[in-house]
Design brief:
Layout (H helix, E strand, L loop, with lengths): L2 E4 L5 H10 L1 H5 L7 H5 L1 H13 L4 E6 L5 E11 L2 E8 L8 H15 L5 E7 L3 H9 L3 E8 L2 E9 L1
Parallel strand pairs: 4-5
Antiparallel strand pairs: 1-2, 2-3, 3-4, 5-7, 6-7
InterPro entries: Acyl_CoA_acyltransferase (IPR016181), GNAT_dom (IPR000182), N-acetyltransferase (IPR051531)
Protein name: GNAT family N-acetyltransferase
Length: 159
């Protein structure tokens, strides 16, 4: 059974492996992180952990039974009772309901533990899988949005 875990420094090796192994897969539907992300991964992770410590963001990994990172699911820009949701699931774990499970789990955590009252999200128009996950988990379209220069949709969900 997968588990949501708050991002910790010891996730670094598995998280970097996850990002490297799935880079091309992710780039097909979301803007690529770029070479700089991988070259400066440790610095980026330290910055994320500092943001998390400050309460600005909440970063999570979806961990498998063996500790493998199967996905990431995060809350960005936590403020005024809400946050932006972002997630990505490994290619080999996609299509089995893991993203839907993770979004539902994080929404419950956001409401119960983090005290949030709403979440926002966005996805590109060509990412039908993410659109389906957001619809299944109670998000509704509230407008259009550009993501990395690509057309997309903006979503919102009350908690």
């Amino acid at each position: 059974m997968p588990e949501l875990q708050l991002l910790r420094p010891d996730h670094a090796p598995a998280l970097l492996a996850f990002e490297r192994e799935n880079r091309a897969y992710f780039a097909a539907s979301v803007p690529d992180r770029g070479d700089e992300y991988f070259a400066r991964f440790d610095e980026r992770l330290s910055a994320l952990l500092a943001e998390q410590e400050a309460g600005v963001c909440r970063f999570h990994v979806v961990a498998g039974a063996d500790g493998e990172v199967l996905g990431r699911i995060n809350l960005y820009d936590v403020a005024d009772g809400g946050a932006e949701l972002g997630y990505r699931i490994a290619e080999h774990a996609a299509g089995r309901g893991l993203a839907t499970w993770a979004v539902r789990e994080l929404a419950a955590l956001a409401a119960g533990t983090y005290g949030l009252t709403f979440l926002t999200a966005a996805t590109t128009l060509d990412n039908a899988a993410s659109q389906a996950v957001l619809a299944r988990t109670g998000f509704t379209v509230v407008g259009e949005r550009r993501l990395g220069g690509r057309p997309g949709l903006a979503y919102r969900r009350a908690l």
